[in-house]
Amino acid sequence: MEKKVTPFAGQSSFAKEISSLVQTLSCNNASVLLIGERGTGKRLIAQHIHFSAAGSLGYFFEVNCRSFSEVQILESFETVSKLIAYNQKITLFVCFADRLTPKIQSAFLEFIKKTCEKGLNLKIVTSVETSLEEKVASGQFNSELYGRLNSVVLNFLPLRQRKEDILPIAEYYLAKFSRKSGLGFTAFSDGAKKALLECFWQGNSDELINAVQRAFIVGEPPVISESDLGFGNESSAIVETIERVGEDRTLKTAVDSFKREYLVKILEENGWNQTKTAAVLGIQRTYVIRLMNELNVRRQ
Question: Which pTM was predicted?
Fold first, then answer.
């Protein structure tokens, strides 16, 4: 059975062009460089490139240069080297490659050279948020490594420059979250749609998805309103959230804050019975336990 990957939703010419390129890129081992702001869908396309050709075979191996230490990155290269020795189809996705240190850039280049010499079935996809050309010109990025990574370059437009994709993305996740949660949300109000289209979306699709997820936590089915998304007169709710999370104002922290409150509410309503809570949330009991541990939820 092939792995199901979230579609690259959208009606813009950009979304259609990117989607049409996936199959072509998946059929060869040419390296692909994805350039764009955070949250524009680079990781999603990297997954599509791999699974469009490999299906359930092979490995999609991700190295996050923003959160991995130098030691972890080097260990990742060693792990991939062992995997490709078994003649498996491997896609190595190196995200935030513009943050690689000179030492790791050299190690990455040597890894690529050795792999190419052996003719192994490895596809390298990298993503960056800043211009590597500028870094090469200023001596901050290895020019030979850059030449190895940019066989095919895809520039990702921010969501605010392709507004026709906003509602399709929001509606896809509305349907997805409804199936998973069983909460019965079916549509966005006219005001919510207007607010979605007018928002700047600094965090691009990631921010949009978090807004829809927020609506499932604070809203009332079946229709998601403008205020459920955090717009309009709900600025006070956003301020309260900011006050709760303190200096760390990332979207993940805000969403985790809402998740924690919602999980505690459902647990309390069910006498802290994890099995009943799991049934209400539409998830496995083991996932309830995992959420409790991740969000530091304890019965008072």
Answer: 0.73
